[in-house]
Design brief:
This protein has 210 residues and is of the alpha/beta class. It is 52% helix and 13% strand. α6 runs antiparallel to α9.
Amino acid sequence: MVYLFIGHDSLSKDTVLNKLKKEFLKQEVAAFNLDVLYAKELTLKSLQERLLFLPVNSPKRIVVIKGAEDLKEDSRAFLLKQAKTLPKEIILVLDIDSYREQSEFIKGFSAYAEVCRFKEEEVVDTFTLGRCLESKKTAVSLKILKVLLANGERPERILGGLRVAWERNITNKQELKRRIKFLLECDMDIKTGRMNPSFALEKLIVTMCG
């Protein structure tokens, strides 16, 4: 089972993904059966391993590849070859940002996938920032932060919004704990005056994307 998410509307994407998780993953073992991978840092070997893992006490596993337009050529070739014969236990979600992505890979993969199209433009808010952090897009995340601050968004609201988004969507408790630790450190840097709020938030973004 293969899904292709196309567009920038992160909230709608998260809604569809959450529906898949609720339908196919048992809540008590969801963290063991959900892999969120990032195309820019994904190797072919790691991709192959993740697609071979069997579900843990669940009928399905979900493998999400964010920023799939950035997959390396060997990974693209592998996925195109395997798209028709993926194990029935695997639900693969390729997440790309742009309707205008016209690569042969995306065209070819669309033939085997359920294509879900989302709005290409979205309001710039804290959830947009969280989406870019998930895809480890440092430059875009920093630009969004600059817009948020220029629009008068308070640093504490930005941190609070990120925490809400992560608590809603991250099932791995250790990963959630790690991220909240970074948020608390950033919050402390701001409240104690150790660092200018904009610099503290920029530091958080670079850390999360790194």
